[in-house]
């Protein structure tokens, strides 16, 4: 059933808001990027539709115990074009802001490709975000349409969303992928896919609720929309140094360059990979939905990263796995199901998205796996990298050199360039640099008049020009490739009775790269704190479980600066030394 509501949206068709913090690159750089062919006039939707059509016979497979799918890229392209036409009939147009929160299911691919073909501004949301993060993202982005799952595992996504609808003034339509999957098949002579019966949703809601399969009961979109390639195409929300997620705005041109650049870097990888990183995150989106299409590879996604299931899929389909953040590799290497046949399929692996311990790269090399590392961020996705042809010491212990088109500087606290071998903050700019944040204050802090992006990361260049990351100014924990804001978690932990002060820092983790460790000072006479109390409290706040600390350490006091600020680097060093022992 459908429920209708009238919502006024002053942003329809603009492609951006006047209040967003857009910071285009200087004119001389824009001209340079166009003249060198790093930027072109192809929209994201045009790029994807062309590549999907060119490789429509390739396999498209979802590895899942609850929602498996096996078809072709052509099947998914057809469904995406039907979805796009259905949304077009619902008055969704180029420049409108639309969001989705789905696991690695076929519906996520249909949605991403369909949205792209419409020329809208996509807002992917990682599937494990809870109501706190989802509500903030939908409000700040001003999304008009939201596609979400009814539930996934323990996460009641629709039930969590319903209480928020009254406060989401610009959201007109929610499209729900029901718990029971539809059967997206193509019977002979049938012009539309066959799907299961639509579910019934609660009444008296302030927003239209639509079942996902009903939008596929349409003819296909005639052609991808033509949009200005310098306009926003995607807003990727990432948790960083602020308590709320930050909206990172990318254009059609920055995404197009990133796809071409990263594809060139991965040219040595001739075997398709199975992607476990969520497609709602930049790493999963690129490795799962964009790079394979551009390179003409089959697509393999898995919705729950189960090492045994991944290893079985590798042998069944002859595919590789383990790329991305270190967790995806180490979880496979630690599995009792790992066999020599798997190692042959994993001969070339790229790691990035979180810290890469030397112990991991050395272990992989001993097993015959060639490892390359890369450095980037949601704001500037591919800044440095290595190829498998480069010397092992560079591949194993550095994050590579600046990639084609990328400029990088290492500066001291005064903004002066430092000499090779000296540490400083990393600044970068290039054709895939983001356009700005949705919050203009954040853009002012991060981007200067010459287009340099202040990464907040500390590093140095070795004598051969390879980057070595040494520390972070950003107070974040990168857990399995996902950023966790310390400020956000600290604010919630401080609400627990008896907690006087808390500092969350990154602890080394052999599987995930890092996890959160909360150092806590309790009030005099307060009951002791433990993980069970912390978990119970954070569950009630709606915070995503991936952000919960996995260690609690009680302290009588903290190491402090003369001004009283907690010296978090001392806490991190304490954890590192304990891990090394």
Could you explain the architecture of this structure?
The protein is α/β, with parallel strands linked by helices and 581 residues long. Among the domains are: 48-58 and 65-245, ANL, N-terminal domain (Rossmann fold, 3-Layer(aba) Sandwich); 476-580, ANL, C-terminal domain (GMP Synthetase, Chain A, domain 3). Helix content is 30%, strand content 22%. The strands form 7 sheets. Strands 5-4-6-7-8 form a 5-stranded parallel β-sheet, with helices on one face. Strand 13 (348-351), helix 12 (358-366) and strand 14 form a beta-alpha-beta unit. Helix 3 crosses helix 4 (106-118).
Please give the share of residues in helix.
25-40%
User: What is the overall silhouette?
Assistant: globular
**Alpha plus pi helix count:** 17
What structural class do helix, strand and pairing data support? Answer: alpha/beta
From the 3D coordinates, which CATH architecture of the domain at 48-58 and 65-245 would you assign?
A: 3-Layer(aba) Sandwich
Query: Residue ranges: pLDDT <50 for 5 or more in a row?
Result: 1-15
Which strand order spans the largest sheet, edge to edge or round the barrel?
5-4-6-7-8
Largest sheet: 5 strands, parallel
The CATH class of the domain at 48-58 and 65-245, by name, is: Alpha Beta
Q: For the terminal residues, how far apart are their CA atoms? A: 61 Å
* Strand portion: 15-25%
Radius of gyration: 23 Å
